[in-house]
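Q: Entry one of two.
A:
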Amino acid sequence: MVAASKMEAALTPWVTKFKKKVNLPVLVQFGEKHGEGGGIKLGDFDTPLVTLRLLKPSAVKHLLSPSLDSLGEAYVEGLLDVEGRVDDILALGHQMAEAGSRTEGRLTRIVRRFKHTKKSDREAIQYHYDVSNAFYQTWLDPRMVYSCAYFENGDETLEEAQLKKIDHILNKVQVRPGHRLLDIGCGWGALVIRAAQKYGARCVGVTLSQNQFDLATERVKAAGLQEQIEIRLQDYRDVEGQFDRITSVGMFEHVGLDYLEAYFAQIRKLLTDDGWVLNHGITSTDPNNGETSHGGGRFVDRYVFPQGELPHISTVLRTMQLGGLEALDVESLRRHYMHTTGLWSHTFEASSDRLRSMVPEKTWRIWRIYLAGCQWAFDNDEISLYQVLCGKSGRLSTNLPWSRRWMYAR
C-alpha cells in the first residue's frame, strides 16, 4: 500500500498537466489490489475504456514520458497491466504518445541502419520465427501463411484470402509447368507446395528458421512432392543456379536499407534472361525511410524484429533499378494487410488462454501488442505493403502481356 501511495503521489501532478492536453477514457490504478472505482482518471468519463494498473514504482517513469516504446516496454516487462479491448488499448496508447510528445511527428522519424551479416540475420530470423510452430499455428491460417492476404472481394475468410494471395502471386509471375521457381524466405512452405501442385513448377524454398525448415520439409513429404520441391536452410546470398521465376514474400524487410541494391543484384544473378520476379514486402510511408512515429519502430526493433528496416516504395524501386531489375508492375495492398493483421489479432485475442500457456508471459505480451499495433499502423498509413513485379533491366520483355488482365485469369 505504501508503494501504491507513492506511485499515485508521483503521478498526480503529471496527470493534472496531461488532462489539459487531452481527455482520455483511461483509468490509472496502483498496485495489485484496488478499491472499486479507485485511481486517477485521465479524462472525464463514467466508465473507462482502458485501465492501466501500475504494478511497480518503476512504471511511473514510463507514463511520465509516454511513447509507444516506453508504454510497450512497461507492458511487456510486467511493470503494468492493461485491461480493455486490445483495439482500444492501441488507439488510446497512440493518443497518449501523441499528447506526451507533441514535437515528434512524421517528418522526424528516425532512420536506423544496421550491419547485416549472415550471422546477425540468421539470429534475427530465428529470434522471430522460432518461437514455436504450435504458437504460430494457433492464430495463422491452416497453411501458416505469415504475410499479407489478398481479399479479392473483401468477404473471404483468412484461409481463402491467403490461398488467393498465393495464386495472385503465381499468376502474376506466370508460373508454368517445368519452371524452376525460387522462393526466398519460404516460411512453412505454402507457396512452393501450391506452385508445385497446381502449376507444375520445380521449386526451391530457402529459410533461415530451423522451425520453418523442419515443418516445411515435413509438409512437402506429406504431400508427396519431394521430387518437385527442395527446402533449404540457407541464406539467400549463398543460393546458386538459374531460376525462371523468383518470389520473395515478407522477407526483404530483414535485408537492411544499405543492402537492398546487393539483394536485388543477387536476385538478378539468379534469374534467367526472360525470367520474372515478384517482391512482396512491408514498406515505410516516410519518404526518408523512417520508422513509425512515437517510438513504435523502436519497440518493434527491440522486441519483435531485431534489425528490421523498412524502405519507402521509392527506395525499393530505385534500388531495384540499381540492382539491375526493371519494375513492370506495382500494386499496393495496404488495406489488405490492415485486414489480415486485424484477423490475426482477433484470433490471437480469442485464443489468449491457450497461447499464454505455450510461451513465457513476456512473449505473449509482445505478440499481443505487436499484432494489434500492426493493424493500427496499416490502418493509419504508418506502414504499407507493395507487390512489385520485375524482370531484368536493359531488355525488352517480349513475353509480357499487353494488359494486366493475365493477373486475374483463373
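Q: Entry two of two.
A:
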Amino acid sequence: MSQIDEFYGSFIDGRMASATGADIFESYNPANGEVLTTIQAGGAAEVDEAVASAKAAFPAWRDMPGVEKGRILLAISEKIKENTDRLVALESLDNGKSRMDAQFDVMTSARYFEYYAGVADKLAGETIPLGETHISYTRSEPFGVTAHIVPWNAAFQQAARGVAPALVAGNTAVVKPAEDTSVTTVELAKIALEAGLPPGVLNVVTGLGKDAGASLVSHPGVGRVTFTGSVPTGQEIMRASAEHLNPLTLELGGKAPNIIFEDAPIEAAIRGSLMAININAGQVCAAGSRLLVHRSLHDEVVDGLVELNRKVVLGPGTSDATMGPITTAAQYQKVQEYLQIGKDEGAQVAIGGNVATGEGLEGGQFIEPTIFTGVDNSMRIAQEEIFGPVLSVIPFETEEEAVAIANDTKYGLTAGLWTQNLGRAHRVAAQIEAGQVSVNDFFAGGIQAPFGGYKQSGFGREKGMHAVSEYLQTKTVSMKLS
C-alpha cells in the first residue's frame, strides 16, 4: 500500500465527517516528507457533538448485559485481525513504524479487545457484613463519557489500550488522536462500528491539541480523562480537569534504567538491551534508555551492542527495514539537539550520533541508532527523555550503586535488570522506584500486567484488571433489614 484515503475526519455517532467545508491540515509520511493525507481540524464544536453523542449512547450501553458487551468486543478483536495487513500498512505509512513494530501494535490491539471481552460478564461488587440487622453491598458503576488523549508514537495500540477497558466497564468514549497520527484511530472507530458497536459509543475527534484536545479534557460532559504523553502536557491536563474534579489516568515520560549485573546472561542481556532502546526507533516512553553495566562487563557489552547496531536497517516502514524514521518533525529536531548535547557534555559516541542519510532515506526523518559511553548520570542525556534511538551507557561497581543510579531521576515508569541470582532479582526489583520492573527480558509484562508510573511518570494503571477499576466508581448501598 502506498496510498491511503485523501481525507480523515472526526468520527461521531457512527459517521465520519465530510471533507466539504471542513477546516483541514496536512499529515506527512515521516519516511519521505510527502503529504500522506488531509485531516479535519476539529475543535470545540466537534467535541461538543462527540460528547453529546457519547452521552446519548451511554444509558443503553451501560445497561447492556455484560455477555453482550463481551461479544461485541470480541467481534472488534476479530475484525482487527481480519484487517491486519491494511492496518499494518496504514500505521507504517502514518507513523513510520517498521513493519515488525506495526504488526506487533495491531495484534496487541486485537488482544486488548479479546482480553477485556472475557471480563465483561465478570464484574461484580462485594457484600459487607454489618451484623444481623443490616446489609451492605457495593456496586461498580461507570463514569459515563471517558476522554482519551492518544499519543503519536503508538496511535492504534494506545487507543485500543484505553478504549477497551473503558467500554467493558460500561462507559462510552471520545478519543482525540495526535494530529500527526490520526489515521488508524479513525479506522478503529470504523472497524468497531462494523463489528456491532452501537453508534456513539466510540467517537473520534481529529484536530490539534490546543483546540480539540483542550476542549475535550475541559468539557463538563466528560467524567474521566486518560492521557499518555509528556509531563508538561500532563500537568496542563491536570489543571484543566481540576475545574470539574475529573479523575485522571496519566502515563507520562520515562528514563528507564536497564541494569546488567556481573552475573547476567550476557548474550541475552545484550540483545534485550538493544531491543529495549531501538524498538520503534526509541519512541517509547518505557524504553530502556539508560544502560547501567557492571564495570567488569562494560567493554564486552558495548562491543556487543555496537556489533548488533551495525545490522540495523533503516528505511520506510513499508520496506524490509528494521527501524523506521522519527515520527514528527518536531521530535526529529529534538533528537538531533540531544545528539549534540551528548557530545558537548563529553560523552563518547560508540556508534551513530548523526542524522542518517543514504539511498532510500531521502526526505525522511531518520536518525542513526546511537550509543553514548562515558556517560555520567548527571548529564542531560542521562536525565532527560530523548525519545529516540539514543542509548546512554553508565558503569557501576556495586549493587547499591546501581540502585542509587537507577533511582536518580524524576521518572519512574519502567526498569529492567539482568541477573541469574534470584535473591538479587527480588531484592533489586523491590528497591527500584518504577511502576513495572522486568527481569532478564526488558518488556516482560504483557497486557494482563498493570502498567503505570511512579514520580513524574504519572499515576493510575492501564492494562490488566487494574485498568478496568480505573474506569469504575464504587457505590455503597446499606440497608436496615427490619
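A: Comment on entry two: The chain is about 40% helix and 20% strand. Residues 97 and 428 are 34 Å apart (CA to CA).
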